[in-house]
Amino acid sequence: MAALVFCAASAVAQNGNASFDAANKLYEQGKYAEAAAAYEKLVQESQSSAAVYFNLGNAFFKAGQFGRALAAYHSAEQLAPRDPDVRANLQFARNQVQGPTLAFSRWQQWLGRLTLNEWSLLAAGVVWLWLLTLAALQGWPELRRTLRGFLIGLGIASLALCACLGAAVVQNRVLRTAMVIARDAVVRHGPLEESQSAFTVHDGAELRVLDQKDDWLQVSTGPNRIGWLRADKVLLGTW
After folding, report:
1. Residue 222, strand partner residues
2. Residue 180: which H helix or E strand, with range?
3. What kind and span of H or E run contains 211?
4. Which helix (H) or strand (E) holds 200?
5. Strand 234-237 versus strand 206-213 pairing type
6. Which of 3, 39, 90, 139 could disulfide-pair with 56, CB 3.0 to 4.6 Å?
7. pLDDT in tens, 142-188
8. Domain 2-95 coded CATH 3.40.190.10
9. What does the DSSP assignment read for 26-90?
10. In CATH, what number does 176-237 get?
11. 66 vs 58: CA distance, rounded Å
């Protein structure tokens, strides 16, 4: 993990970012909480980048704050979706989480291989190719028999990619995820402190948000684990 943070740090330090360099020095000195605070200040000052979020995740991870580390890695991944170091650290941090957490289906993992913009460009490209082929056949009707199979294939691909794009929009823009940032958090059967305990989640657990009532969130790690959790125990996002 340490080697990865230095690679990211040097790339940005060359741009003369003194504040980032100072945060990196705190990390190198083993002052992980102070380094995390310094990286967070950069984010608040709109000086965020994939490297800043990546190093912020490393600092939180070293400080033992898995939930905040995961949230930072997710933010880095959104800015640099192809970065292998970000993906490796994200997965490594996820593997350290104890207890129940949200299980992503193979379909969700497959959708995550491309960003929302990439799904949009891919779907739009195939749809336009289908439309241009239809237009071309109006001018050269003698090609209809030759291109019939190609046209049908493009139509099926267009429908499939538009469906994938719709699913990606739901996953990235509609569904909310709660990242647990407390060491232990009790999920209850109702939105009250007096409600009976349903199950307990731990730092770094990822939960699907189903509903919200005042300061409580209805969350789930799957169809058999649903309950209410105080909102101050989590960070919210659309990771």
Report:
1. 225
2. strand 176-180
3. strand 206-213
4. strand 197-202
5. unpaired
6. 39
7. 888 888 899 999 999 999 999 999 999 988 777 899 999 999 999 99
8. no
9. HHHTT-HHHHHHHHHHHHHTT---HHHHHHHHHHHHHTT-HHHHHHHHHHHHHH-TT-HHHHHHH
10. 2.30.30.40
11. 10
